[in-house]
Each structure stands twice: as C-alpha cells, then as structure tokens.
Design brief:
With 310 residues, the chain is α+β, with helices and mostly antiparallel strands. The protein has five helices and 13 strands. GO terms for molecular function: G-protein activated inward rectifier potassium channel activity.
Length: 310
C-alpha cells in the first residue's frame, strides 16, 4: 500500500507548515528572546558574532569621534596637554582602549582623564550597554546549550506496532529503547468529518505502568477494552481504517535534570495484527546483554481475527 501523508513523522517532527501569516509574523519579534533560542545553531552563532562585532565597532567609533572633535589625534599627549583618553592617536588605538575597558583588562597605558566629561558619560553608557548585551546573548547561548533536544535522538521506537494477546487480553503494543547508559480520524453520526480528532490511549496511567525505568528496551502496552478507541477494530477492518497513533515520551534527563520529549507515530499500515516482538535481552556472565539488531523484529503468534467487541 502507498504510504499516506503523516501528521507526525517517524523522527517526531510535526509535519505542519504555517503559511499566509501576513502581519501576524511580527509576533515572533515581540518575543525575540524565544525566537532567538529556537533558531538553528548556525544562525545563533552568526547573530552572536555580528552583535558583538557591530557593538565593538560602534563604541570604538564613538571614542575615536570624541578624540577627533577635541583635537586629541593631532596633539602630543604630554604633561602640558590633557587629552580625553591618554595615548589614543587613531582608530586602532581607540578600538584597543574600548576592548581593554569592556573586557576589564586595564593595561594602564590608555585611560580616561578627568578633563573629559563626555568621555565619562560615554564610559557609563558603555558599561550599561555591555552588561545588557552580555546578559542577553550569553543567556541565550546558555539556554540553547542546556536544551535536551539531542537527548531524544538516543531514544529508539520500533518501526511498527503490533496487536496480539497478552494475559488473555488483546493489546496494542510498541517498543521503546534507550541507547544511552493521539490523533485519529472519524466521522460523527451527523456526517461531520473530523480529520484530526484526538483520543487518548491508556498505557497504564492509573496503575503507574506508564512510569518507565528506561534502562533496557520496554514494550508499551495498551489494553483494548470497551473504553479503547480500538474496541471495534478487527483484523479485517484494519485494512480499511485510517488513523495515526502519536506517541509522546517525556522524561527527565539524568545528567542535567531537564525535561526531554521524544515523539513518533504509527499509521494503520504500521500496525501488524497477530505479531509479537522478539526478545532482545539475554543473561550473560555477570550482566544483561541487549541485542539492538533484533529491536524492530517481530514474529507471528496465533491471534483471533475478531475485534474485542465481537
């Protein structure tokens, strides 16, 4: 069967694009900090470098402008003449003075004299502006580096889900593994078509079975009963149904303590009736071994072709 359009891709990316925003695109600028954090790393680094480069050049130009207007560039900086900034003769020396001041290096060769009130005001403005720029950009980079998005790449979901019996009950199951040490379509009785109608699948919320200790691959089980949206699903009707099971795994990264979310989805073509996952864990000399080469493998088991309702 031809693979149909998915709402959530297998890698967890939502297959939705926003278009024709018009004037609403300005909302991204109203929350510029979050927009900057959500950008890709290459754009973050480019903005980081450009912001500091432009700010340094502008402030160095202001210091050079003060020296130029006062005539300090043409005068000898001796005991008989008191410049605004000692030993600033051209733009490179003005730039070095700014960098020494901003980075609090203070070599002592270039310094502001008490005969320059405009230089004192510019120095105060530079200190305030530098603190704001540092707090904004460094805070943005820190938050972006601490985001656990890449942690989801070491979580693995099985390529297919299976339906078979477990403890004499028909269950929908899929497998999730850790590599590191619900949207459904339906038609209402009135004839209204709901393309993205959501229905929750119970995977043990009431009993605590959804709280996973994800050290080895686990099989998540949804019992198909009278409260399940698959109550009327049979092996025959599975061929004509259209649905998409969206799986959201959310947990805390142990190393950083931050929340991480991983997503995937299963369409009706990826649900195998009468199959079970192959075991991947074996006991060896002093430890348990997990064979990920069999992670996606399934095998057929005797399963009634009827729905739970039938």
């Amino acid at each position: 069967r031809r693979e149909r359009q998915r709402f959530v891709d297998k890698n967890g990316r939502c297959n939705v694009q926003h278009g024709n925003l018009g004037g609403e695109s300005s909302r991204y600028l109203s929350d510029f900090f979050t927009t900057l954090v959500d950008l890709k790393w290459r754009w973050n680094l480019l903005i980081f470098l450009l912001t500091y480069t432009v700010a340094w050049l502008v402030m160095a130009s202001l210091w050079w402008g003060i020296a130029y207007l006062r005539g300090d560039l043409q005068q000898a900086h001796g005991d008989a003449y008191s410049p605004c900034v000692a030993n600033v003769y051209n733009f490179p020396s003005a730039f070095l003075f700014f960098v020494e001041t901003e980075a609090t290096i203070g070599y002592g060769y270039r310094y502001i004299t008490d005969k320059c009130p405009e230089g004192i005001i510019l120095f105060l403005f530079q200190s305030i502006l530098g603190s704001i720029v540092d707090a904004f950009l460094i805070g943005c980079m820190f938050i972006k580096m601490s985001q656990p998005k890449k942690r989801a790449e070491t979580l693995m979901f099985s390529r297919a889900a299976v339906i078979s019996q477990r403890d004499a009950k028909l269950c929908l199951m899929f497998r999730v593994g850790n590599l590191r040490n619900s949207h459904m379509s339906r038609q209402t009785p009135e004839g209204e078509f709901l393309p993205l109608d959501q229905c929750e699948l119970d995977v043990g919320f009431g009993t605590g079975a959804d709280q996973l200790f994800l050290v080895s691959p686990l099989t998540i089980c949804h019992e198909i009963n009278s409260e399940s949206p698959f109550f009327c699903l049979s092996q025959r009707s599975l061929r004509s149904e259209q649905f998409e099971i969206v799986v959201i795994l959310e947990g805390i990264v142990e190393t950083t303590g931050m929340t991480c979310q991983a997503r995937t989805s299963y369409t009706e073509d990826e649900v195998l009736w009468g199959h079970r996952f192959l075991p991947v864990m074996s006991l060896e000399d002093g430890f348990f071994r997990v064979d990920y080469s069999q992670f996606h493998a399934t095998f057929e088991v005797p399963t009634p072709p009827y729905s739970v309702k039938e």
